[in-house]
Design brief:
Length: 171
């Protein structure tokens, strides 16, 4: 292939790509305009089940990496040592690959453990928050009932407070 032909083909390819280029984006008419008030998009909602599934999947992936992916490291290191001892330059390269594999595997396992632990903690914290809110709301309902005239007839004792005939011992 001649140099001129190569340059011509490169030029043609560049022209074709420039006319076909497009950016990936949402159509602003379909909710892609984020310059508006963010509250119009609603709140993020996640259930305890969702958090539990994410945490379980991260935990399972961590265990799979621990049980399966780590097996390659000792085998590769042994092969690298044998190749190096026998005078093959490939031994050093294989040792480098095994070391990098172990580093990357360790990073991935750390990330999985972090996700799993975070989901467990998040689930526990939000569960406690939900219980606290439920307790607060039930005490507000009870307080509201005490002040709500609709609970009892006007002029009559409110049943929320119990029988007025019950007296405490005063000793």
């Amino acid at each position: 292939m001649a140099w001129d032909e190569w340059e011509r083909l490169k030029s043609q390819a560049a022209e074709r790509q420039s006319t076909q280029m497009q950016l990936n984006q949402l159509d602003p008419g379909n909710g892609g305009d984020y310059s508006q008030d963010p509250s119009q998009f609603g709140d993020l909602a996640v259930s305890q089940g969702d958090l539990a599934k994410i945490g379980k999947n991260a935990f399972d992936l961590y265990n799979d990496l621990w049980n399966k992916a780590r097996r390659a490291v000792p085998t590769s290191e042994t092969a690298a040592g044998t190749l190096s001892k026998d005078g093959f330059a490939l031994g050093g390269a294989l040792k480098h690959v095994a070391t990098r594999w172990e580093e990357q595997l360790s990073s991935l396992m750390d990330a999985c453990a972090h996700i799993s632990n975070h989901m467990t903690v998040t689930k526990k914290l939000h569960s406690e928050d939900d219980q606290y809110i439920r307790r607060q709301m039930s005490s507000i309902d009870l307080l509201d009932a005490g002040f709500d005239e609709r609970v009892g007839e006007p002029g009559k004792s409110n049943s929320v407070y119990g029988d007025s005939g019950e007296k405490k011992d005063e000793n």
